[in-house]
Every structure is written in structure tokens, then in C-alpha cells.
């Protein structure tokens, strides 16, 4: 027997598409899930329309007998089992090198009537001699999404969002074919536009969950929906002392336990638990999950779309290239997202958070955080504490949250919400066009840091219901604040 790990990453952005739990079937080659151009089986129909697997499991068992092995890869973020945007889910299976030489998979795409992804040809994991053929990685693009042909397409209605009963669409009897594409709402998100929860497969998402007409449009050129990764598992265990653990090409499962450990894995999609102590982790290539545990750790995600948890302690986290999810945890952490589109959450403690290049989301959490968005269009939320926030380049959305914050929009067209507390918004010029949504005439201040602007008389302020502040080729808008209400006491010049 061999341990095989099947991992599925939902590659869509926040506001993108969901996947139902992914059905996985290991067999000796005697099962065929579907063929393009043929009519879907009853089991595939149930998977593609409703995300349910009972009928398909029955068909699989009838075709493979006692030698077949089926299961699923399910998510943990939101509604039970559903794999959310940005989520990485995996399941480990004990397989036989002869009885389970081949693998097939399938899942429903949400929202849709009967859109699905899957393998029409079995994936050969082992050769005839039982030797593993090496890791398999499949990138599923929007053009790979299939239409089961069993239900009329009405994606404008967001089938299966806020729909509790299965099999409620208009039945058709067409052949399996490429799906024609997503039809978004005409005036914005197709679901959740007012922040209400959605029901997906009987489970309720958090309020504010949306399917965005752009992020959810899998018919766009180059759209990446999911990545499926299949590899053997190699397990490594440390002890109470300082260990050196080296992985390889397999999906390494590392439990370092206590001690100041050095962990270096290879090209697999690895799961690393560093445990207690001051640990040094290099995760290598692949979409890895790293848990630093207790102690001050140095965690390097390196290449791949990684999930990194700092744990307790003042950690240094460098996510590396890839769309990474980083949670600093307790303690004042240094978090650098580096390249690509990252989601960074500081957690407790005074954190330093650097978005780097790419469209990043930074959430400071508790503590007095120092946050820098970097290049591109970032979303930054300071949270509790007295934070220093710099949007840097790009058109950023910044919310200071609670506490007395210093907010620097930087270059670009920025939208700034100061939040509660006595906040200072810094306008730097640089051709910026900032929009401040909640400036408080009693608590907040505007600081001008631009060449040639040294006093209140250098500003041109106009407007009645809202005010426009023009200075040295740049401007800012204060929503809900009339020009007549602004005096020199509301400004600092630095």
C-alpha cells in the first residue's frame, strides 16, 4: 500500500467561484467517468447539478467491485465541504499499486446549473509493475469547464445559491460539451450584493460573501479555476532536540515537534508542522502548508501558493513568489508577501506587514501595526491598535479601523476610511487623487507632504456637500465635509 495525497486549490480570487467537494475514484482502469459528446450518467448528473456523490459512488462501486476506492477532497473555510476561492484542500488515501493504478475526479462549479470539472481520461498513477509514475499536476482553466447537458443554463439566476432543494432546474437531455460560460448580474455581484449570507449546498456562508461578475466569469481568457495535484506522501518526524529534516520530490508531511529545527522540503506540496522552538523552514517549490508553532520562527514559503501560519512568537515570514495566505498569529511578526497576490493577516501583536508586488489584502488585527501595500491595487485594513498604513503605489482601498492611525495613501486614486479614533491622513502629492470617506472634523487631521505646499493658503478648497482639496497638481476629496467647515486647524504641513 502507498499513501497518495490529492490536493485541490481553488485558484479564483475573492469573489470568485466555488467548487463542491471533489469526487475521487481510484481503480484498475475499468471505470470511465464520462466522455465528451456522450450523455451524462445519472451519477454525473447529480454531481454536476447538485454536488451530491451518492449516485456516482453507487455507479463506481458497481463498475469496480471490491477493488475500487472512492472518496472526496473537501474544504474547511465556509459552508461544509465547499472549496472556497483561494482555499487549498487535500485528502490522503491508502491505495494499492495494482488495484488503484488509475484515478479520476470531478466536481461541480458554483454557481451554475450543471457546470463541472473532471477527468474524461483516467490518470495513470502507477505502471504495470506498480512503480509510481511521478507527481501529476493539472491546471484547470475556464475553457476546461464542461456542461453536463442535463439542465438548462440560467446562471443569471445563480443556481444553487440560496437554493436548498436539489434537482430543481429545467431538465434537458443534451450531450456533455464545453460550457458556454458564466452570465453575471447586470448591475454588480450575482449574489450577496447587500452583504446578506448565501446558502450553498445547505450550508450558510458568512455575511458579505459575493460572486463577483468579473472574478466569477470563467469564460475570460486565461481564467484559472483550480489546480489538482497528486503525489505520494513521505512522512518525517522529529524529536525533542534540534533536528535537521530534509524532504524531496514527494509531498512531505513533517512533524518536527520540539527543539530548534531546520526543515527544508523539495518540490512537493508539503505540510510542515515546525512545533515548539526557534525553527528555520524552507518550503521549496509547491503549494505548501506551514505551521510555525510556538517560538520565534523563520519561515520561507519560497515558490508556490502557500498557506503559512506563524503561531505564537515573534516570527519572520517571507511568503515568496505565489498567491500566498499568511496568518501571523500571536506576537509581533514581520510578514513580507513578496511577489503575486497575497492575503496577509497579522493577528495579535505589533506586526510589520509588507504586501510587495501584486494585488494584496492586508489585515492588521490587534496591535500597533506598520503596514505597506507595495505596488498595485491593495486592500488594507488596520484593525484594532494605533497603526501606520502606507498604500504606496496603485489605487488602494484603506481602512484604518479602531485606534489612532496614520494613513498615507501614496500615489494613485486611493479610497481612505479612517475608522474610529484620532486619525491623521497624509496627502503626499505624487499626482494622487485620494477620497476620504469619513473625515471627522473634531478628531481627524489632514497632513500635507508635498513640494511647495507649506501653509493653508497654498490649498484650494471648494465644494458644499463634499470638499475638494487641490494642491500642487494633486487633489483629495472629503466626503460629507463642506469646504466652509475646513480651517487651518484641520491641517498639518510636513
TrEMBL record:
Keywords: Secreted. Residues 30-155 form the Spondin domain. GO terms for cellular component: extracellular region. It is found in: Secreted. GO terms for molecular function: calcium ion binding. Pfam families: HemolysinCabind (PF00353), Spond_N (PF06468). InterPro entries: Hemolysin-typ_Ca-bd_CS, Hemolysn_Ca-bd, RTX_toxin/Mannuronan_C5-epim, Serralysin-like_metalloprot_C, Spondin_N, Spondin_N_sf. This is Spondin domain-containing protein.
